[in-house]
Amino acid sequence: MVLDKEESVSVVSLQSREKPRGCAGCNGKIRDRFMLQALDRFWHEDCLKCACCDCRLGRVGSTLYTRANLILCRRDYLRLFGVTGNCAACSKLIPAFEMVMRARDNVYHLDCFACHLCRQRFCVGDKFFLKNNMILCQLDYEGGHLNGSTERLQQ
């Protein structure tokens, strides 16, 4: 297996005239109507699982990760091998698997991504201003006459 690889999982229909394929997980024949294809191999739906949490990767999503001969779900891959960092607002640790907001080079917890003055939280597409690593809403930016760079959250 390749180290640090993101791979897609696809559901493949087994045609009635096709010879059953071997499962990469259990080595048994796949006689089900549908099978999963990932890592250039075929799998029973129950056999393609995360090596850490045992979740079925065909149901969790369409992506799996491989590293150090492990097949992992996204959460476990990030938990084991992801990069952690600190929130630009509260300076507390952000686990690698946690969803974050970004503004330029800064990374924030979702709860910390709010106006520094009034604590208004932002949604995707909302306009905010960034001044000296301080996030401001439009009202506080215009009311305080601060000079900053305008940013827009990307979807």
Short characterization:
This protein is mainly β and 155 residues long. The protein has helices at residues 57-60, 74-81, 138-144; strands at residues 5-8, 10-13, 21-22, 29-30, 34-38, 41-43, 63-67, 70-72, 85-86, 93-94, 100-103, 106-109, 127-131, 134-136, 149-152. The protein has 3 helices and 15 strands.
Structure description:
This protein is mostly beta strands and 155 residues long. It has two domains: 5-81, Ribbon (Cysteine Rich Protein); 85-143, Cysteine Rich Protein. 12% of the residues lie in helices and 34% in strands. It has a three-stranded antiparallel sheet. The chain is elongated, with a radius of gyration of 22 Å. The model has no long low-confidence stretch (mean pLDDT 81).
Helix-strand layout with pairing:
Layout: E1 5-8, E2 10-13, E3 21-22, E4 29-30, E5 34-38, E6 41-43, H1 57-60, E7 63-67, E8 70-72, H2 74-81, E9 85-86, E10 93-94, E11 100-103, E12 106-109, E13 127-131, E14 134-136, H3 138-144, E15 149-152
Antiparallel strand pairs: 1-7, 2-5, 3-4, 5-6, 7-8, 9-10, 11-12, 13-14, 13-15
Helix content: 10-25%
Using only C-alpha atoms, the radius of gyration works out to 22 Å
- What is the CATH architecture descriptor of the largest domain? Ribbon
CATH class of the largest domain: Mainly Beta
Query: What shape does the CA trace take?
Result: elongated
Number of helices: 3
Structural class category: mainly beta
Largest beta-sheet characterization = 3 strands, antiparallel
Element-level helix/strand string = EEEEEEHEEHEEEEEEHE
Name the CATH homologous superfamily of the largest domain.
Cysteine Rich Protein
Instruction: Give me the count of strands.
Output: 15
Return the average pLDDT rounded to an integer: 81
> Which strand-content bin applies to the residues?
25-35%
Number of domains: 2
The CATH topology of the largest domain is what?
Cysteine Rich Protein
How are the strands of the largest sheet arranged? 1-7-8
Rounded to the nearest angstrom, the distance between the terminal CA atoms is: 33 Å
Uncertain spans: none
